[in-house]
């Protein structure tokens, strides 16, 4: 899995200006009569000022796009997803450990503290029906409080792919897991088509793994089995390359 560098977007605001015009008359003797001063209509000026203020306000209300997530917070989000169906399976924990070790060289030392922080958040549940909301709150906090460092971060699409691999590691994609994952996709502003393509890819990989396991149990000639195994391996490689392209877009 590759890591990508952070990109930042800058929003610029436009300000308008209105110049006043003055005229004068020389060498003309006028009666002592007050001539009303001619100005740019105040209503027009106020309209521009209000529009400018509104534009600035609109920009300030726009949510900040998340370009990268700190590895520590990404690991927390993975843990919340594993817990979404109410039970963390051994296969999920193995995947969690593998991804955590890949993200963080000191994961073995940091794991206990990270998990305890997640469990502390999950203890906020008051009634059973609050469980999903508490998990979602934990994910939201992990995303909003994420502080990227130069060498330890993960990009949104890579995180989505890793979450999918964890969700499918127990060969069961629970409805609550998918609901939480879709929430993360929206928060990270990952394109819907990219997410659905990733889902399709992981499903195909799961089917190929099942097919591979079945082939190895058959009594077909060795060469036949070897040929079929190689074909499956090639198909898996094509899918992985396609996923890499999706992540790097």
State Rg: 29 Å
Outline the biggest β-sheet: 2 strands, antiparallel
Amount of beta strand = under 5%
Helical segment count: 9
Please state how the strands of the largest beta sheet are arranged side by side.
1-2
Q: Strand tally, please?
A: 2
General shape? globular
What oligomeric state is this? single chain
Give the N-to-C terminal Cα separation.
14 Å
In helices, the fraction of residues equals: 55-70%
What structural class do helix, strand and pairing data support? mainly alpha
**Overall pLDDT level:** 78
Low-confidence stretches: 1-60
Question: What string, H for helix and E for strand, traces the elements in order?
Answer: HEHHHHEHHHH
């Amino acid at each position: 899995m590759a890591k990508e560098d952070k990109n930042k977007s800058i929003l610029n605001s436009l300000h308008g200006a209105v110049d006043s015009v003055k005229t004068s008359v020389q060498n003309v003797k006028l009666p002592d009569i007050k001539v009303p001063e001619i100005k740019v209509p105040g209503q027009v000026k106020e309209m521009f000022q209000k529009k400018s203020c509104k534009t600035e306000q609109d920009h300030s209300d726009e949510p900040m796009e998340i370009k990268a997530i700190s590895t520590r917070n990404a690991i927390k989000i993975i843990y919340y997803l594993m817990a979404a169906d109410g039970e963390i399976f051994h296969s999920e924990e193995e995947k969690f450990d593998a991804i955590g070790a890949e993200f963080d060289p000191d994961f073995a030392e940091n794991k206990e503290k990270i998990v305890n922080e997640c469990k502390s958040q999950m203890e906020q549940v008051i009634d059973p029906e609050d469980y999903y909301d508490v998990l979602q709150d934990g994910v939201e906090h992990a995303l909003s409080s994420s502080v990227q460092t130069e060498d330890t971060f993960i990009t949104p699409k890579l995180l989505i792919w890793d979450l999918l691999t964890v969700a499918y590691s127990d060969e069961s994609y629970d409805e609550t897991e998918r609901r939480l994952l879709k929430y993360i996709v929206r928060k990270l502003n990952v394109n819907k088509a990219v997410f659905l393509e990733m889902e399709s890819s992981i499903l195909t990989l799961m089917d190929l793994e099942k097919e591979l396991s079945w082939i190895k149990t058959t009594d077909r000639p060795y060469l036949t089995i070897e040929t079929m195994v190689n074909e499956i391996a090639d198909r898996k490689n094509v899918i992985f390359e396609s996923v890499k392209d999706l992540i790097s877009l």
